[in-house]
Amino acid sequence: MRFQAPESLSEQIAQHLGQRIVTRELKPGQRIQELKVAGELNVSRGSVREALLIMERRHLVNIFPRRGAVVSSLTADSVNALYDMYIDLLCMLGRKVLERWSGDQLRGLMGQVRELQAVVDAINTTGADAAEKVIDAGFGLIHYAYRLVENPFLEETLENFRPAISRTYYVTLDYFREDIAATATFFRQLADAAVSDDAEGLQSVIRTFGEHQRQQVLKILREEESA
């Protein structure tokens, strides 16, 4: 495999390995060997090392002296810490959207929601890879909000959470197929609240869905620990 610009080589490697962690191809506790990855991808060990540091910042791996990089575990504490922050950041993004734009100017959100609904409908009829497609469609709506808010600091912070959040979404959608429809409902309610200029309703929708996701992940972790 060869990686090309515009993204840096180390970033592309981090995304490649990160996707393998998100989809659970690489398991928690599994060691990632620099030399092996470098050989598989035909890149230098230095580039792999930089990629692992990026992944460590995104909480996908832990790096230990003399042991190297190990896929991080999903624990109740890490999930709770992640959702505490992510829910608050999404609420901030929602508030900033409503501060800058009025209902008529937010009609584009409904177009994004229709696109997500089309993805859900296609999954229900074709059995496509549900988790990845729904995650990508959901983040498409978040990216639309970035363009409305134009706050690069908030955008960068939320984007750094994307791999860890995607990892938990993948777990829940893999276990609970009904969450596919729930995700589409969430984004529809989100857009309705935004177009209605309902700041309290918007944050209530975000918190309700975020807490639902948190509890689903925690339930799965409990079941896997007791298995």
From TrEMBL:
GO MF terms, alphabetically ordered: DNA binding; DNA-binding transcription factor activity
Annotated HTH gntR-type domain residues: 7-74
Entry-linked PROSITE patterns: HTH_GNTR
Record's keyword terms, sorted: DNA-binding, Transcription, Transcription regulation
UniProt keyword Coiled coil present: no
Record Pfam families: FCD, GntR
SMART domains: HTH_GNTR (SM00345)
Protein name (database record): GntR family transcriptional regulator
Organism of derivation: Marinobacter salinexigens
